[in-house]
Amino acid sequence: MTGVVIVGVDGSETALRAAKAAQQLAIGLGANLRVVSAFDTNRTEVVEIGTDRWIVSDAAEAEAVARAVAEQLADDRLEVTYSSARGKPGEALVKEAEIHDARLIVVGNRRMQGIGRVLGSVANTVAHTAPCDVYIAKTDAP
């Protein structure tokens, strides 16, 4: 199998567990891995200290999270790319899968029990709307 495996991350330990599962699946399938972090707002702030000026945005913060995870997953056996994507996490992952003609989306099972199961979860959204196969990694236990 070739193609792209998409995984969503948010900086949490459980998301990192899903990303590591995605890495192993991508290696085994001979696919590329794309690490995606979603952001839901376009909040931008300008920070000035003395003569230094920084522009901080939700998109930049999300991309930094995706980049950090992608760097941790770097492996000679696969190509790892990263990006930020605007939207709610589940919807953003599905959109990225459509854009990149993904073969697989990997998500964790966090919030699939209790009230999260009733109100919805990223895994639930992705499983019901993905244009490709979905792998739900067990991330609620180390």
From TrEMBL:
Query: Which Gene3D superfamilies does this UniProt record tie to the protein?
Result: HUPs (3.40.50.620)
* Residues annotated as domain UspA: 2-138
List, alphabetically, the Pfam families matched: Usp
State the InterPro entries in the record: Rossmann-like_a/b/a_fold, Universal_stress_UspA, UspA
For this chain, the family text in UniProt reads: Belongs to the universal stress protein A family.
Q: What is this protein called?
A: Universal stress protein
